[in-house]
Amino acid sequence: MHVLKVSPGSSNYNVYIGPGVLGEIPVRLKRSIAGKRLFVVTNPAIFELHGFNLKEELQREGFEVGILMVPEGEEFKSLETAGRLYTELASQNAERSTPILALGGGVIGDLAGFVAATYMRGMPLIQIPTTLLAQVDSSIGGKTAVNHDQLKNQIGAFHQPSAVFSDTFVLKTLPPGQISNGLAEVIKSAIISDPQLFSLLEHRMGNMLALEQKTMDAVIIRAAGVKARIVNNDERDKRRRNILNLGHTTGHALETVTRYKINHGTAVAIGMIIAARISLKMGLFSQRDLGRITSVITAAGLPTSIPGASVADILAAVRHDKKISAGRLKFILPVGIGKVIISDRVSLEMVAQALEEQA
């Protein structure tokens, strides 16, 4: 098991990464939690695969476990669902010191984190990510949020977890599409800060897709390490943490206009190529590296063209992006494999042109 330390300023916590980490949770929580009550937020499919056994093991260690079930799907990462969870917590007399365990992928982690951040002004949060995307990205760093109407992740709070438990063995229970979805965030991590990780993906993508344990653990540890280092230096997303949004400006717009019919990884993959094309036209990026990015994204099983969405609709959604400051779009542009810049020189016209070329 690999232990990654995260120290963003407001808190310090460990990310436990490796096969079998789920089995470590009950004993470690018994050592670190004063009370005996906790709540697990999950969905029915994850509960059947992993939650039932976790609940039994927690109960063996003397915990009283409440299960709060959320239907599967991005549409349930909402204020309405958060409100229902508040009601359930209140009805079961949850206290401010009662931990919430987020068992699931990014939707569960974001939603449970938002509830933990806001109910009674803050409850302890334990992240237990069960998807590749959540293990390398969304479970680390304390960003929590829900969607509202056409606004993706724009209602939220910073709330760091007390610990993150990433069991890499559980990824073997995921459908192949979910692995590709998570690989988009791994590729993003490599492009922004880890050329060695990018090279690893170029040479061992087949091993990763086959869920070969050694490759899987190495990739997740490196990608999670990128996220941790960036968060440690900019907890509140004021400066350098912005680079984690590579591919997300047009990516979030794509998710919004398709009403989440395309998954996050697909949207980010296309968004990264859009960003690379813009950077190429600005003379900041090479054609060779654009080809390398496109090849790795394709090898990961991700699309590189926009799946049936209007450029005009995407641009309208981009205008609502939360990274707009003083009316200017903040765009993350690759300038090499392992290096990006934050630019305010990207116009909507440049985005439109890149979108047209990628359609």
Radius of gyration, in angstroms, nearest whole number: 20 Å
Number of helices: 13
Element string (H = helix, E = strand) = EEHEHEHEHEHEEEHHHHHHHEEH
The helix content, as a percent range, equals: 40-55%
How would a crystallographer describe the biggest sheet?
7 strands, mixed
CATH topology of the largest domain: Dehydroquinate synthase-like, alpha domain
Q: What is the name of the CATH architecture of the largest domain?
A: Up-down Bundle
Overall tally of structural domains:
2
Span of the ends, CA to CA: 43 Å
CATH class categorisation of the largest domain: Mainly Alpha
Hey, roughly how much beta strand do the residues contain? 15-25%
> What structural category arises from helix and sheet content?
alpha/beta
Can you tell me the CATH superfamily of the largest domain?
Dehydroquinate synthase-like - alpha domain
What would you call the shape? Answer: globular
- Average pLDDT number: 94
Widest β-sheet, arrangement of strands: 1-2-9-6-5-3-4
Total beta strands: 11
User: Which stretches of 5+ consecutive residues score pLDDT under 50?
Assistant: none
